[in-house]
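Here is one chain, start to finish.
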Amino acid sequence: MPASRPAAAGYPPSNPISTRPWVRAGSAPWPRWGRTARGATSVHDATASLARFVQGCTARVRTAAPVAASGRLTRVAGLVMEAVGLKLPVGSTCRIMQAHGRAAEAEVVGFNGERLFLMPSSEVHGLTAGSLVMPLEPQRAAPAYPPADAAAGSDLPAEEITKHLPVGDALLGRVVDGAGHPLDRLGPITSAQRAPLAARPVNPIERQPIERPLDVGVRAINAMLTVGRGQRMGLFAGSGVGKSVLLGMMARYTEADVTVVGLIGERGREVKEFIDHILGPEGLARSVVVAAPADAAPLMRLQGAAYATVLAEHFRDQGKNVLLIMDSLTRYAMAQREIALAIGEPPATKGYPPSVFAKLPALVERAGNGTHGAGSITAFYTVLTEGDDQQDPIADSARAILDGHIVLNRTLADTGHYPAIDIEQSISRAMHNIVDAQQQRHARTLKKLFSRYQRSRDLIQVGAYVPGTDPELDQAISAHATIGNFLQQDMQDRAPYADSLTLMTAIAEHFGADT
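Its structure:
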């Protein structure tokens, strides 16, 4: 028979509860049940002891530290990186630790099983296989029992997942990138207010209608393509037809409390020129410029457009009238195309995946009037037409979701006609709701005369037309020079709304407004 084991010092313990790591020293032990009446605690005492024990456990759970979740980088192919070991929702942000101690940021753009697809928003040189991937915010486990005040079936809102970037008056006069970092070397952004990139759209039933005209300071637009507060217009143009100059004129002369300019995917040289020469110090003083040039990562270009919209929404919710200028919507679509193709989405029309055509209305619909008591966002989005092709898929899609379009004509620009607005192809869909019948009739008269001359331009220039053959054409010929001067405007001149209407009325009545 084996010898009995000698008792170790302190063993067995005099108090078995002391060996239980979950019981704090000096706290009530686990309640003992089944004692007899001789010296045993009553049922009431046992219940109180159990309640104290549960309260202690609850306090420890509430003060538990967040779980430091992490994963590892397994693959980098082109624009997309793959990571395993993390379960994060689409839209959340990660930090990838590089070998030399620096960190690169990336966003979750998709997943396949246990693999996350990440898109970097900064430089990724120095990344190696197995690099540590950590969420930007500590991840907590989902509660097994949701709070009593939580709505049944409610999901985590997108505002809690997406990035929060600085907003507020501290950004006026500043130039920042798509992540809210200053580019003008004027010091850090001091605003304490932050807003999520993914905001809920305004309920269309609660959105205020477009009822008041907006003075943009450009004669041709004020008189013949009148824009209303809260309207969303597209500026369709090829390269080199004066698009940036026209945007600068509207940024300086439009009657708006705040101007937000988003320069998305443009050349870095053009960003500097637009700020210094086109926008100018006067325009910059009441503006915020978000610049994500062509050499920025596609994710940063997408984020820059969203950030410009968030800034405009913030000022609108404060009751201000905001002018949002985004140059360009096409570069935004191209950035989404790069991301979608990189994660394996199949291409469709002209190589654009279906997600591109879903992203465009999601961005544009965030502009416009707010609810009752809020301000407005009047937006101008530039759309690049390749080879002046108005049937480009992005141009065609943008035309369908915007409230009007202004087309810049290369032929007019080649003749020195600036701004090169093609009155024939341009339209403001909200104009009939914000102007009276007389202004509509006068604008129609000038457009009719201008169009009649353009259709017979070649015949007139070669001298084949005999005056008196067509009275309507004779009238168009006599009015052509006057209408042409009316539509042209120097970039340094501001044309107030009232003056534009007075001049258009005089021209229309002189050449027969009722014909």
